Structure formats: structure tokens, C-alpha cells
Amino acid sequence: MEFIRSDARDFPATPCALQQSAGYAHALRELGVQSETYVAKDGTCHIAKLHVLRRRIGPMNIAWLPRGPVWATDTPPEQRARLMRTLRKVGTTSTTWIISSETPQETRLFPHLVLMSPQYVAEIDLTADTETRLAAMHGKWRNRLRHAERSELHIRQRPFRSDRDLNVLVFEASQRKQRGYKALPPDFVLAWEKAGPKSSRLFTAMRGNTPLAHLLVLLHKPVATYHIGWSGAEGRRLSAHNLALWEAAAWLTGKGYLRFDLGNVDTQNAPGLARFKIGSGARIRPLGPTCLHLPHLPFGRRPRHDAA
Q1: What tens digit of pLDDT does each residue of 80-93 get?
Q2: Predicted pLDDT of residue 53
Q3: Cβ atoms of residues 239 and 148 within 8 Å
Q4: DSSP per position, the chain
């Protein structure tokens, strides 16, 4: 097994989370974060790509692998397990690895200690037809969409540009402070824009010339990620955010995207946003737990603290 540091441009296009996309890696480097991308090969075969974040805390070298690796199609379980066992080749043998797997099943590939229970995420399957996506919505959500469609709203969509759209970040930062949820800082969007000027799309619900709601989507084909959503009082009354999300999904489908990631579903700290995502008809699924990787523990043994 060989780990090659690269931009992974030769890796086959595979659906992945925002955290494993090239744009995310570039944006974090722009913000001064130590961010590295590797391609794992076994002979001439691509096995996986990995975006790793590094940090030093006192004497400890920390490597964090968020929602990865991204596996090549049809990589068998035994090859995946071997990659996870040889992660110490990426860096030094003293590196402490923290891994947040994409699925609970992937956690079984390596010995570990669970640090944090799994988060849940919402995903819209863009390969499904319009009628199937409508049928998957909760009744109240679908009624709000119809309400918005009957109003005088229209959706304006264009690439996000900080020189004209900075107010969107200001509105969202104020909303975040008011509601108490966590998100990446506004500077991340500016860094993402520099890494790829057309790698984001801003959908705005308009009544006449007045914007009532904004939805910012980050593009990393074949997946797109819902990043920012904001709606004023009149936008909420007219269900403008529902219409913006629906139109964004339609635009993404037309451009050949396969999946629309709506992000974490946090019913405790952001219950309103969680209800909005669940009601949209998105599939809700668990990620793997956040784990401390223990590469020197014999395979097949796990600490007692592991989740069932």
C-alpha cells in the first residue's frame, strides 16, 4: 500500500462529503490550516483518497480524517481494512489519528476508541424523479412549497461573489448568533470562493426586487452541499426557503449532480433547521462515530468503550 501526496485530480470522480472535497482542502489552506490530500494505491490500482487535517497540540501530532477515506468503486473490505491499518505511513508513527468515518460500518475496519457518538446527516437523492422527491416530503413541508409557488416569489440564482453578496454572510452570522447553532466561519466562504470562483451558487427568493431568503450551495461535483440558509420574517411567512431549496435541487439535477447534502441534523441545538431538513424528504442517516485510531492494537480487538 502506497500513499502519494497529490491534489487527487487523477482519482476517479466519486461522491464524497464536503470535508473530503478538493475545494474544502484548498479553502482551509487559504485560511492557514495544515491540510494534506493523499491518494492510496495498491500497485497501479486506486484504493482511496484522503483529505487529512493536521495540528500540533503541545507534544502531540494530531491528524484528523473527517468523513473519509473516499473509496474507489468496488474496493473490497479486506483492502479497506489494510489501508486503515497502514495509516501510520502518512506522517510519523507517533501521530495520533482521529477519524470520523462516513458510515458506522467503516468503523469496524480498524481498532479504535470511540470519542463521540455518531452525528446524523440529511441527503437528497437527485437521481430520483420529481414525483418521487415530492412524495418523500412531509405533508406540511409540501404544502408550504405549494404556498410559496402560488405567491409572487421568484428565484434568482447566480454564482456567489463576495464583492456583491457579502450581506448574505452578515445576515447568516447574525442569525447564527441569535439561534445559537454552530457553523464554519464566514471567512470559509471567502476562501472557498478564491479556491474556485464558480464553485458556489446563491439562490435568492425575490418578491419584485426585494430579496426575502437566501440559500448558498457549495459545489463539488457530483455532490453539492447546503452551506447557508437565511430567511427574514416575510420570507418565513411566504415559505420562501422551501421554494429556494426546491429550485436549488432542480437546478443541481439539471447540471448532473447526484446528491444534495443538507448537512447535520441537530434536533437539540437547532430543532427548527432539523425539522426543515427532515420535512424536505431528505434521507436521514448516521455517520460513523468520531474515533481515536489505535493502529498498534491487534486487529479484531477493540477497547471496552467501543459503541455497540
Answers
A1: 999 988 887 786 66
A2: 95
A3: yes
A4: -EEEES--TTSPP----GGGSHHHHHHHHHTT-EEEEEEEEETTEEEEEEEEEEEEETTEEEEEEET--EEPTT--HHHHHHHHHTGGGSS-TTPEEEEE-SSGGGGGGS-EEEEEPPPEEEEEETTS-HHHHHHHS-HHHHHHHHHHHHTTEEEEEE---HHHHHHHHHHHHHHHHHHT-----HHHHHHHHHH-TTSEEEEEEEETTEEEEEEEEEEETTEEEEEEEEE-HHHHHTTHHHHHHHHHHHHHHHTT--EEEEEE--TTT-HHHHHHHHHTTPEEEE-PPEEEE-TTSPTT---TTS--
Give the domains, in start order, of the chain with CATH numbers: 2-118+287-293 (3.40.630.30), 121-286 (3.40.630.30)
Task: Give the lowest-confidence range in 41-50, 62-71, 178-187.
Answer: 178-187
Residue 184 phi/psi, 5-degree rounding, is -65, 150
Tens-digit pLDDT profile for residues 86-132: 887 786 667 889 999 999 999 888 888 999 999 999 999 999 999 99
**pTM for the full predicted model:** 0.92
Residue predicted with more confidence, 91 or 196: 196
Could you tell me the three cell numbers for 205?
427568493
